[in-house]
Amino acid sequence: MNPISLASGVVPEFGPLDTVRAAAAGGFDAVGLWVEPAQWTARTTQDVRAALADEELPALDVEVAWLKPDNAPDDHRRIIDIGAQIGAANMLCVSSHSNRLGTIAELAALCRHAEGSGIRIALEFGIFTEVKDLAAALAIIDDVGHPLQALLIDPIHVDRSYSAIDSIADIDPGLLPYAQFCDAPAKRPDPADFDAVITDAIDLREQCGAGALPLDALYRALPPGIPLSIELRSKALRDRFPDPADRARATAQATRAWLDGRT
User: Are 131 and 125 in contact (CB under 8 A)?
Assistant: First the structure.
């Protein structure tokens, strides 16, 4: 069965230590952590490293480097450095550069900064960004041409962007060190309504098999055994399980039950 990781978005109101503990209590194989550079201190790194070691839990990814024309590249580089210090395997990256050349330049710079760190820079596409679909993401990755670049697939963004699932099976597996996973309702938000797009992405996701996405086809298009970051941002889940460990446990159980049905 695919290793599963608790994405930080499942427990967005909690900090990194609580996220690590929730992932362990929930029975996940790994964890993803949200890094706020302005709030992350040397003590945070020390505590997170100790918690990961105590729980024998690897960090699958850190997030998020959001590339924008007016942002601070130093923050993005610091996320890579923090990720390296805690042993993370990937850093999630999205882009709001309206000029694709800006995305290419910044993504290439991040890949160069990550050299020697053990971290891949995973570009995620979605209609909430300027890299709106699979084809656009692949074109950017092709132009960057760095061995540390990667592509991050998320079922809800595949569906909302009308990206072809069949095309995923043709992607070089080396570009897919991991993928996100979740389900979602059939109704797509209006791409022109940014608030509706964001609400769909951060509040309306569902447990695997409980929604209407073509998860089985997408799962079979991914490389066998690929680690799955369970990116289940759900207001209903947050309301039902205010305790992060309970929420993580419910998410892991539902995910593994769905995966069991694929074998």
Answer: yes
What would the pLDDT profile of 86-136 be if each residue is shown by its tens digit?
999 999 999 999 999 999 999 999 999 999 999 999 999 999 999 999 999
Report which DSSP code applies to 190.
P
Secondary structure (DSSP) of 55-105: HT--EEEEEEEEE-TTS-HHHHHHHHHHHHHTT-SEEEEEE--SSHHHHHH
Six-digit token string for 64: 């998020």
Q: Which two tokens stand for residue 149?
A: 């670049």
Distance CA 236, CA 183 (A): 13
How far is it, in rounded angstroms, from Cα 159 to Cα 250?
Answer: 24
pLDDT digits (tens, 9 = 90+) for 244-261: 999 999 999 999 999 999
Query: 3-class SS at 111?
Result: helix
